[in-house]
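Entry type: protein chain
Record version: 2
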Amino acid sequence: MSNSASMNPITNEKGVHTSLEELLEMRYLLKGLTLFNANNRRSPLVGAHHSKLRGRGVDFDQVRVYLPGDDIRSIDWRVTARSQQVHTKLFHEEKERPVFLLVEQTKSLFLGTGQSLKSVVCTRLASLLGWAALDNNDRIGGLVFNELEQRVVRPRLTKRSLLQFINYLSQMNSQLINEPLTPVLTNNLLLAFKQAKEVLRPGSLLFIIIDERSLDFASQQILQHLAIHMDIVLLPVYDPIDHELPQAGYLRFAQGGQQLMLDTNNHKIRAAYTQQAIQRQQQWQELTKKIAAKLFPINTEQDLIEQIKPLVDKQR
């Protein structure tokens, strides 16, 4: 099925496009909500995260097969001799952690049947997480991409870094318009993941905020590599129409200059559409288990704060 539907009752401009002012004000919506564990903080520059940094930490974690990039000083020679395969010790390090927000702003997100388009929800979610990370004295950076470009901000422990990223979010969101898009052959999500891989260092916390429909095999492959040295939180954004077609007669779906008319009164068509949605959700769940990530699907019609509250307990 296509990613964009003509059915769009949103008349509120605030739900169609975000603004820099709105994203800046998102910090006040937290209302004391702490999304990251701040217990046992040793100094304003030291967080309390158990990172995946493969260094000479304090707390021993586990032993696993040696991978390129691991510290050779941490090789467990006893296990290596016993198994005849090089193994290394892993340690948890308590320190501030780079938080990186990878956010999609492609045409496929310019869809919504409620109060806000998926593209707007993505920017609001990224802004909320960015402010929460900054309040927790974590390094904050991110990458926002569309079909044509990527904007990157390297993680830094400054408010200026977050403001720069929020500005990029606002700019790319404003570029989305309800007009046919010239087909783009490049896999922009895969390019975004590759760029993130170059920027991020081991021990980072990566939030992936993309269209639920964007995930593909190539992107899953590179995510598996990223997950080796960092923690990943998956936040696929969906509109209810992505999961179930309403009985509304003929609807026009469009993507990349191509159009498709569907008779939504046809039971078989609606059933097939729903089955595709179920398969997508299963793919996300399977990926989550494979890379040991955390999964929080985001519904555009539900309260954003309520949906991310579980992150409080998950990050402890």
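Comment: Residues 243 and 278 are 8 Å apart (CA to CA).
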